[in-house]
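Q: Joint fold for the lines below.
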Amino acid sequence: MTPILEIRNLTKSFDGVPVLKGIDLDVDPGEVVCVIGSSGSGKSTLLRCLNLLEEPDGGSIRFEERELTDPATDVDRLRADMGMVFQSFNLFRNMSVLGNCTIAQRKVKGKAKAAAETRAIQALSEVGMAGFASQDPAKLSGGQKQRVAIARALSMDPQIMLFDEPTSALDPEMVGEVLDVMKALAASGMTMIVVTHEMAFARAVADRVVFMDQGVIVESGTPEALFLKPQEERTAAFLRRYRA
Amino acid sequence: MTPSPLTRRPAARRLWFNLAAFAAVVGILYALNPDIGEAVGAVSIPDDFVGGSLFTLWKYAGLFLDGAVTTVVISMVGTVVGFAIALLLVFLRLQAPTRRDARAMAFLKIAASRFAKGYVSVFRGTPMIVQAAFFWYGLGLFGDAFVCGLFVVSVNTAAYIAEILRGGIASVDDGQREAARSLGMKPVQAFFAVVFPQAVKHSLPSIGNEFIINVKDTAVLSVIGIFELFNQTRRIAGIHYRQLEAYAIVAVIYLVLTTGLSKLLSIVETKFDLPRPELPSSN
Ligand SMILES: Nc1ncnc2c1ncn2[C@@H]1O[C@H](COP(=O)(O)OP(=O)(O)O)[C@@H](O)[C@H]1O
Ligand SMILES: [Mg+2]
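A: Joint structure:
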């Protein structure tokens, strides 16, 4: 199987401080990769480099057989194939829930209003939010907002979904509803990279878990291997802190 | 249950207050000069202040109205055109080269941003009366003082609105722009579909304030010979050499205009659920 995403020797610094120090990672179609690691280790920067919200300094990112870092690549078109879900939802405040899920379909894919709305309602149903289509996002709870944000990304029919700590900004009682949506999405065969501190979720859903520390991938493996028999002391130390 | 006067809705209370104030003013006028009919109908201007004021207002109402209309038109057109110019200025101001830009493009973007910044500094940093004199007497580009006045107010207001809009844009959290970009929208699409509508909504109350400020500040256009409200008043004052009455009247007219327009804008703001404006400050 050829990987859908191939990351080679990816580097990125901010103001001369290296944040990613040569990341290599392949993701196969349908695979769910969970990225764990302490705060500041470069997980968000990695995800943001993948869809070029941050411009990498060096290395290569191949997505759907195309090199993203090549200036000649139409990045916007490729971004449309990569759904991104942010910690802080980032819903468009000047639009209804439905508007949030149709605007990019119409602007990027040139879809007609009716077709975009049909797809949006379908995506909203998948996350259990179809009944809220005409609502103002400001009136929703955090968990509902995040589910709409997931539907917004799904409406574009992406090939891969990137999640950056999607439950970290939620009240504890709302974490479950968002993780359930993500579990269903994984079960449907979606390729996913999930940065998360939800170890139980990673254990249950991930095909592979990647542990990052200080801008490098320290260790990666199946959830069983990584959680039960970590090969690196840094991984073991991180997991001990989480179990405590 | 009938509401007691103490729990009456504020709007109703305000109405009663205004009516009472109006009645008080009329009462005082009568007490000072019982024969208003004689004052306004007099052949020559009465000697006392109240009589002289009523005479002036009555006799020159048309001229005052002319001036007021000119003032409001220049202020309104200046604010609308200024808004359009401000859009261009903000667009230029926000240009920033990215790593993907060719060198010539990067240079152009930096130049555009610097230009917009310089424009704002120049027009906010110099008095409008100087700008008016500069364009009318200095450059002499315009054949018509009124057109020159419209131009000056527009380019001046543009500088202020550009800063208001820039603040409005900065107030939209960057995450929304990033989310739009992550869905494949181009920078221009993300800007116009997501950021800009919110920025304008945040900015509208302050832009309304600029309009009201213009109503007052267009008085300086008298320097290039436009007969807006203030200059018109100078003309009226000169007819009978009764400065006090003429300027008292024009002060009241300005006050009615600015408070009336404020009220109108606040009704619009409430209706469209806009954020409360910041306090107006003079240019
Ligand atoms: N835009 C930025 N400018 C400067 N420094 C940044 C920026 N984004 C992230 N960093 C720094 O890069 C490091 C890694 O950040 P991040 O990728 O957000 O880590 P994580 O998501 O693992 O917590 C941190 O030290 C952070 O302060
Ligand atoms: Mg992070």
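Q: Anything notable?
A: The longest strand of chain A covers residues 17-27. The longest helix of chain A spans residues 172-187.
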